[in-house]
Amino acid sequence: MITWIKGGQVIDPRLGTKNKLDIVVRKGKIEKILPPGNFNPASDIDVKVIDASGMIVTPGLIDMHVHFREPGEEYKETVATGSQAAAAGGFTAVSCMPNTTPINDSRSVTEFILERARKANLIRVYPVAAISRGLKSESLTEFGDLKEAGAVAVSDDGRPVTSSELMRRAIEYARFFHLPVISHCEDLDLSNKGVMHEGTVSTRLGLKGIPAASEEIMVVREILLARLTGYPVHISHISTEGSVKFIKQAKEEGIAVTAETAPHYFSLDHTAVIDFDSNAKMYPPLREPKDVEAIKRGLSEGVIDVIATDHAPHSPLEKDVEFDKAAFGIIGLETALPLTLALVREGVMDLPSAIAKLSYNSASILHVRGGMIEEGKEADLTIIDLNNEYVIEGDGFRSKSHNSPFIGFKMKGKAILTMVGGRIVWESDELNPGS
Amino acid sequence: MYRFNHKDLLGMDQLSVSDINTILDTADTFMEISSRDIKKVPTLRGKTVINFFYEPSTRTKASFEMAAKRLSADTISLSAADSSMVKGETLIDTARNLQAMNPDIIILRHPSSGAPHLLARYVDAGVINAGDGIHEHPSQALLDLFTIRKKKGRIKGLRVVIIGDIAHSRVARSDIIGLRKMGAEVTISGPPTMIPVDAESLGVKVVLDPAKALKGKDVIMILRIQLERQSGILIPSLREYSIVFGLNKELIRGAKKDVIIMHPGPINRGVEITGDLADGPFSVILDQVRNGVAIRMALLYLLIGGGRGDNLD
Q1: Predicted local distance difference test score (pLDDT) of residue A41
Q2: CATH assignment of A61-366, given 3.40.630.30, 3.75.10.10, 3.40.50.2300, 3.20.20.140?
């Protein structure tokens, strides 16, 4: 059997092109890419036709920063429910951070996550292993063993590596295994139990503030360590004007750093916290309008390589409590695409660059497949209707958790079909009729 | 026609100038009750008021309780120690349980900023914020405004300075909002480590040096330095604080001749203010406490429905 994706605008983020092309998928791979009208299947072959006219076809989206909570907090999310949320959001691959219970700092946990992903059988799940045992910033995990077990990168995400010496050695050691190093940048001392961005709103609400410098100090440390070691460091979820500035400067000096932001940092600012809404609480916190503008500029100028969600599911147990006691984090897999497309409409990025930040760039940083549409490659594809308008509803999420500040928001643009290795893992009933 | 129309009092933010004037005018009429021989009127007979204090409090708790009793409401008091919170119950669950007993007003003191807002979303009873974290303490601000109005005859145009740990003070936040709404000029002063970030966004002037800050002022509000906050990070010692920022006879000479000194209590004598000033002729500290009962009577009366024209007697 073959699948014929017909009449869509195909985006190749690597080449930055957008062309009307047909894609023929066979045995899980892209067999042919050809101009419309040029494909004539033999009459004895079983053909499934997907009418993508009026839609765009992109490489399967990749989210390099999610928390799937399994093992340990399955009441918030599992690898299976997280995968469903990812597929519905247009993602064909994710990398999941190690702060589970137990922590992913050993082969057995990495293998367990991969086993869960195989059982869920939806999208590609790439475990990220811890840098330090128990995320304690004391000693290194077994990078070699973890890589062999299937970990694609190392990070202590959720916590910074507080010891600069340990971080330096982690980067040096990771080089031997070609493992990407990902850093959650935060000076815990300076954050000092803050619960939101330090500024006019924290002053008004009497909530303890986290200054922008808490993030920036660590961004600068990682830049200096990347320079010292000569090995790349990927900086997670940047949110401030200063972080963009320092990373831009580092890149101009040829230092090997890459950077990521999350959709909430270019869609919301700290005023979202007024009314003590714990769904607007995450680390780093929502910043000021000038930071939002700087993040957009960073995306536009290519300083920020990746848009990742930092999908962080929490249940009402952690969220329906006093603001300062509420857990940090929001879900993002099912809202990332439309929020990014809003930036394209705003003129911040063109469509191929936006898709690159949601796919190809993450694949290159993580050294995993995907992010391109080429004959002979795995058919990981996403079909997107740019004009589909809808309102985000709290009970409409596939994720097990509903902690999103975007509930009630009007969105435009939706993943209509998600395909992993030629297999359809998500299909909206809004696909063109008759297909 | 104007009507006081609030179910809850969560912060000074929600009150209009007319609301504030109504509360102060109502308190004026209640002042007299507390000076009677029999200090009780039947206004809130049959109404239930829950005093729910997650943090220790003497003044505020006693003041609310006395206010409710003088209006003949039934009151019960709960503290963190005897609430189910120590058994791990969440605030929302506690709220639902209290609501099931159908109280009219819940007065909440809580260490988390925004806790009364959370509570108010889950109960039908009116909620009064009796101090939440470092956010607001609106009944204190109202009694401060009431005291100023009684002493000075007006609030508009007065020049007020607040000295102390502004960043961690819910009293300061509520006072600033209330005073600005009523047309007073507000200056804040204290060690730079205790001035909130972007303080000017609150509509105040920041003058760190207390000697300069209190020049020509009509009102000086002194905040309590919380001994428990004195970790050595914000200020090196109480000794240095009292020398540099403590209010004393020397310092007060720069203020207006008819200045009044206010303090929300409890006082650390010899730290933020010398004992002789706290007890001296400029001090209105005990007036504040006295006026507090009348303000809280007014709040209970208005929130339960007095302002909406119901016949309460």
Answers
A1: 86
A2: 3.20.20.140
What share of chain A in percent tops pLDDT 90? Answer: 96
B133 vs A198, A320, A324: nearest CB: A324
CATH superfamily of B138-285: Aspartate/ornithine carbamoyltransferase (3.40.50.1370)
A310 is catalytic: yes
Cα-Cα-Cα-Cα torsion A219, A223, A228, A230, nearest 10 degrees, comes to: 130
Partner residue opposite B113 with nearest CB, options A198, A275, A323:
A323
Whether the per-residue pLDDT at A230 is higher than 50: the answer is: yes
Average of pLDDT values for A242-256? 98
Per CATH, the number for A2-57+377-398+412-427 is 2.30.40.10
Chain A positions touching B198 (Cβ under 8 A) are 199-200, 203
B300 part of contact set with chain A, CB < 8 Å = no
Q: Which two tokens stand for residue A286?
A: 């929502």
Q: Which residues 191-220 in chain B show a CB within 8 A of chain A?
A: 196-199, 201-202
Note whether B12-137+290-308 and B138-285 share their fold: yes
Residue A40: pLDDT over 90: no
pTM exceeds 0.90, yes or no: yes
By Cβ distance, the residue of A198, A321, A322 closest to B197 is A198
Which residue ranges make up each domain of chain A? 2-57+377-398+412-427, 61-366
* Mean pLDDT value across residues A136-158: 97
Q: By the CB < 8 Å criterion, does A48 face chain B? A: no
- B12-137+290-308 carries CATH number 3.40.50.1370: yes
Q: Are the beta carbons of B197 and A205 separated by less than 8 Å?
A: no
Average of per-residue pLDDT values in chain A: 96
- pLDDT number for residue A434: 45
Query: By the CB < 8 Å criterion, does B250 face chain A?
Result: no
- Nearest-Cα distance to chain B for A162, in Å, is 21
pLDDT score for A43: 83
Domain chopping of chain B, boundaries: 12-137+290-308, 138-285
Reported as a single tens digit per residue, the pLDDT across A76-99 is 999 999 999 999 999 999 999 999
Question: Residue A337: its pLDDT value, please?
Answer: 98
Range in A36-45, A194-203, A296-305, B23-32 the model is least confident about: A36-45
Q: How far is B135 from chain A (nearest CA, A)?
A: 4
- What does the pLDDT read at residue A432? 59
Catalytic annotation, pick one of A105, A310, A380, A385: A310
Q: Å from B78 to nearest chain A CA?
A: 19
pLDDT value for A225: 98
ipTM of the complex: 0.92
Q: How far is it, in rounded angstroms, from Cα B287 to Cα B175?
A: 17
Q: Which parts of chain B sit beneath pLDDT 50?
A: 309-313
Partner-chain contact A321 B90, CB within 8 Å:
yes
